[in-house]
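Sequence in, structure out. Go.
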Amino acid sequence: MGFDYHHFIELIPDINLAFMQTVYMITISLIVAVLIGLPIGILLFVTDKGLFLENRWFKNGLGFVVNLVRSIPFIILLVALLPLTDWIVGSTIGPTAASVSLSVAAIPFFARIVETALREIDKGVIEAAIAAGATPWMIVKDVLLLEAKSGIISGVTLTLVSLIGFSAMAGTVGGGGIGDLAIRFGYYRYDNTIMIATVVILIILVQIIQLAGDFIAKVVDKR
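Output:
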């Protein structure tokens, strides 16, 4: 059975609810990822060899934790974090519960992107700021974040796109959203209409986010 337009019209309320759940999940996760991942990414950079807060042990320890979380497949992380999710939100199902695992997965992902963006800054700019007597906080605020803002915005876009894919996977454990709808209605009931609709919605969402992110990154890039 192919795409049934009339059946699609009947499913619009369910699709709308699932779409809003997905937006809710990825918005919470992105905010958490930026708030925690940004400082982690900065710390990974400034504690590296030759930088103004060089600390090999701290850098290696933090890098190990970041790599450890990143190396765990999301579906396994999703299940492993169920006790933590239950402790934080009081439930293991629904979009709010899924946001916990999404956030944990997104934090190290975004942190590494921030670190990479900072590595592209000309070391001479940092050295000039140090020579001028700037404090570490001033260097971070006025040099690093300013110089790397285009790369960081691109990182936010990439993280957001990845979160959409992860959120679809969260449907396998009752996380809600587009993925949950696709699995419950599309996969289990062999409903091609809902499968096609959810895939198209996700493709459009990713395209809009990518285009908007690329545009903003280009606007703020002063190079």
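Check: The chain has a mean pLDDT of 87. The chain has one domain: 5-220.
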